[in-house]
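Example record for the data management plan.
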Amino acid sequence: MQQGLGIGTEGGPPRDPEADLRPGPDAQNGAPGLEHASSKEQELYNRTVTLFMTALYDKKMLPKHLAFIEKAADPVEGVAEVASLLTMRVYTKAREDGIEIPGDILLQAGKDEIVPLVVEVAEEAGIAEFDQSQIDAAFYSAADKFTEAMRNMGVYTDEQRAEDLQTFDQMSDSGEMEALLQKVGAAQQQEGLR
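Corresponding structural encoding:
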């Protein structure tokens, strides 16, 4: 068991994912970037993040995730691979339960929660320190790996990919992505999570 990761003997998440997603002073619904989300979208976002945290912090799997990142030639790519594999697991589990998680929610959760959580455990384990450009690179790589796996499974169509790329481009062009990154970074620093 890794020390200093905030992981209890039962392997649960180091913090309550629902507490992380409660509305802040600037958000109506609590999740960064989902201030105008419907209650169903917010619920899907929360469920996605909760399932991801459960998979990431699983007491049997966390040491394997960390070992994978540590053995990777580039820790950024190790983070991307772990994030994409765990996201695929969450997506597959949700589909098995009859829940379809839209691409925009996966994209938002990946950028705001999933990749930063994998980075956090890697940093706390002493594997590497990541700057914002490396975190961004890990996100883009994880998104590519995830969508490629989805296409290979026949789950992700070219039309869906075009729609998700359009959403991502709109977020980037409007400055929303940068604003989200700044918001998340400020919240993490304020909460002492970095």
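Summary line stored alongside the record: The helical segments are 17-20, 39-56, 62-71, 75-96, 103-124, 132-152, 158-173, 176-191.
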